[in-house]
Amino acid sequence: MAEHYQISGSTAAEISESVEAGVRAGDLGPGAALPPVRTLAKALSCSPATVAKAYQTLRQRGLIETAGRNGTRVRERPPIATSGRSALRLPTPPGALDLSTGEPDLALMPALGPRLARLAAAEFSPTNYTDAGALPELVELARVRFAGDGIPVDDAEITVTSGALDAMERLLAAHLRPGDKVAVEDPGWANALDLIAALGLTAVPMPVDDEGPTPEGLRTALTSGAGAAIVTTRAQNPTGAAVSAGRAAELRSVLAEFPSVLLIEDDHAAELAPVTLHALAGATGSWAFVRSVSKPYGPDLRLAVVAGDEATIARVAGRMRVGAGWVSTLLQHVVLYLWRDDEVINGVIRARDSYVTRRLALRAALKAHGLDARGRTGLNVWVSVPDETRAVAALRDAGYVVAPGSLFRLASPPAIRITISPLAEDDIQPLADAVAAAAALDPVPARSSMALTA
To answer: What gap in Å lies between CA 416 and CA 407, rounded to an integer?
Structure first.
C-alpha cells in the first residue's frame, strides 16, 4: 500500500469508504496494493471478518481485485472518477510514439462537417419526447446490412444504444444479477472486464486463439455456471482473433447445450474487418449482436445498432426509455448519411486496407525476430513477452508507449499490446527491433509471497 495513505475505519462500511476516498483522491492509484486482511485488521484494531467484508464490498463494486500471490490491489481502471496524483494512463514522454490506445487513426475517419451541413440543408427537425427512439430508417438499413452478413434478422428486433459498451451494460443488467458469472475471452477487451467488475459480476475466462474462443474453453465456462458469454466475432481486442466458419460451427454446437445462456456478440470493427463474418447469432434463446460505428466512422458518434431476440431487445429498449431515453436522432441521422455515402464507403475500404498493411508489416518484422506476434485482424498486435513490466518500461525508454497485457488478461500468459494505427512505414522496423530487445530481458525474480499472505 502507498505509504502516504493510511486506511481508516472500525466498521466494514467505514473501511470501504476510506479505501474509496483514497482511490478517488489519487492516493491509491491503479494497481496499488492493499494490506492483507489480517494485517489491516490488526492495524485498525478490528476483526479480520470486518476487513474481509469491506474488501468484498469493494470487489463487488469493481474497485479492487484479488490477484493470487499479488494480493489485493486497486483495479487498473476502477469505476470511479479520480483526481490528484493518480492517472489511468501515464503521460506519453515527449517525442515518444503512443501505441497504447487501441484507437483508430483519426486521419482515416470520414469528415463529419459536410454530412452535418447536408443534414442542416435538409431542414432537419428536432425530435420531441413523444417521437424519440430508434430512427425507423436507420433500423431498416441496419436490418438490410445485418441480413447481408448472415445475421438472422427476420424474427429479430433491432434497437440503438450509445456504443458497444453501453449495449453490453444494458444486456448484462437485463439478464443477470450481481454475483452471476460471465464467460469472457482471455485475453479480452479491458473495458468489458472493467464493466463486468463494476456490475458486480464474475468474469470466467475463455482461452482465445486466432479463430476465436476455443470450444473447450467455452464449454468449461458455461459448465461452471456462466449465465452469459461475450464473443468478439472479428478484430478481437487485443489479439486480433476472428471467428472462422469452422470455429463458428463448433461454438454453435457447444451453445446448443446451454440454450438459456445470453450470447452477446461484439462486431466493433464491422466494415474495417478484412475477413468474412461468421456469426453465432441465434445459437441460444437469448442473444444480441452488437455493431458499433466507432471504429469505421468515428468514436464521437457514440452509436451502436443491436439486433437480438424480441425479449432481450425489449428489455434493453424499455430500460433505456425510463433512463437515458434514446440515442440522439441527430447522431442517428448522421450515421444514416454515412452509410449511404459512396465516398465514405470507399474511404472505409481504404482505411481497412491501410490497417491491414500496417498490421501485417509489423507482424512480419516481429516474427523475423522470432517473436510470437498475433494480429489476424483489427487495430492491435499482441506480443508474448516473459515480463510485461520490464518490456513496457524498456520500450518507453526506447520511445514507444505500449499497453501492458495485464489490462486484458485473466489467466493467459504475459504479453504486450501494440496499436498499429499510429504507425508509418518507417516506424515498423525500428519498433520491431526495440520490441525484440525488450522481450529478450529476463523476468524479474518473483518476490516472496510471505508478506502478502501473512
So the answer is: 9
